[in-house]
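User: C-alpha cells for this one?
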Amino acid sequence: MVALLCALVALLLVLPGCTAQRSPSSGESHAPSPSDPGSRGPSSSSSSSTSAPTDPRVAAAHVPRRFRHLLPGMPPVVDDNVYSRTRPQDVRPRLRHEPQLVYVPDSMPSGSTVTVISQRTHRVVRTLHTGFLSQHVVPSYDLRHLYTNSSESDELVQIDPHTGRVTRHIPVPRPYNLYFTPDGRQAVVMVEEHDVIRFADPTTFRKRADVHVPRCRGPNHADFSANGRFMVISCEFSGVLVKVGTLSHRVLGVLPLGAGSMPQDVRLSPDGRTFYVADMATDQVRLISASSFRQVGRIQTPSGPHGLYPSRDGRRLYVSDRGAGEVSVVSFRTHRIVDTWTIPGGGSPDMGGVSADGKVLWLSGRYDAEVYAFDTRTGRLIARIPVPGSPHGLCVWPQPGRYSLGHTGNMR
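Assistant:
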C-alpha cells in the first residue's frame, strides 16, 4: 500500500512538468515550421533580419513607422530596405536559366515591334510584332510574363520571357504605362491620353475603378510607399504629383511643382523616406517626403533627367539625362551626384534597367534609334546597338526580386 501511494505521488509530480513543456501557452520558444509566419522567406511577417522583441507591442514599436501597417497580402520589407531583396543573388530559382535578353519597344506611331537583344553578345536576336506605338515593356507582378503597352492599338501584348514569343493580346484603352500594387491584387494602367488612372484585374485587366484627377494631365510614372498603402504618380503635362490610396482609390493629395515642371520617373529611396522625381523640364531630381508629401530637397542635373534606376547594392541611383546624352550617378546617402557617364558623340538615354548582376545599365536612345549599355563599375559605354524607330521603355530580363511593381522593372 505504501509503495502504491509513493508511485501515485511521483506521477503527480512529473505530469505538470511534462504538460508545461508542451503547452503552447507556456511562453517557451519553439522552432518555426515551414508554414510558420515567423519562418524565413516571403511568408515572414518580420520587417528585419535581426532578432526582434517577442512582445507584439514592443515589436511594432521597433519597426519604423513607414514600414508599419503593411498593405494586406504584401510581402514584408526586410532589413528596413525596400530593395534588400533585389540583389544579384536574389534572382528567383525558376528565372536563373531564363534567356538574358533586352526588350526594346518602338514608340513611333507607325512602329509596331519590340526588338530583342542578347545581353551576352549585344546582338539583335529577334523582332516581335506587337501593337502600334509600343511604349514600355513591363514585367508582371509574379514575374511570369512581360507586357508591351501598345497605345495606338489599344492593347497590352503579352510576351513569354522563357521563349521570347508573343502569347496574348489583351484589349485595354490607350495603355501608356503599367504598374501592380504590392499585394499583387490590382493592376494600375496609366491611360495617359485620357488623363485616367485605371485600377484593373491583374490578370484579365478588366476595369475595377477609374480615377480622374482634374489637375492631373498626362499621368505616366509612379511608385508605391514603403508599406504599399499609397502611390505617388507624376502628371507630365500639368506639372503636379498626385497621391492615391491603394485600397480606397481616393486622391490623398495633390502637389504642384511650379511653372514649367514636367515630372517623369518616380522612385522610392531604399529607406522608404523619400520619393525621387525626375523633372525633365527644370533639369532637376526633386526629393519628396513620403510622410508629408512635400518637397524637401532637389538635385540639379544636366539637361532632361528622365529615368531613375537604383544600383543593385542600393547605394546609388542612375539618372538618365536624355537632353545631355549623359547618366548622372547620385548617392542615396548624400543626395549628390558622385559621377557622370557620357555617351561619346552624344545621345538620348531614356528608359531601361540594370542587369541582374548589376554590372550593366541598359538604356534606350529615344531620338537616336539605338540602345546603350554602360559598365556600372567604370561608367564606360560598352555597347551601342542600332534598333528601329524611337526606342522607349526598354526592359532588361531577368531581374532579381520577389515581385514586380511594373514599369520597366520596379522590383522589390
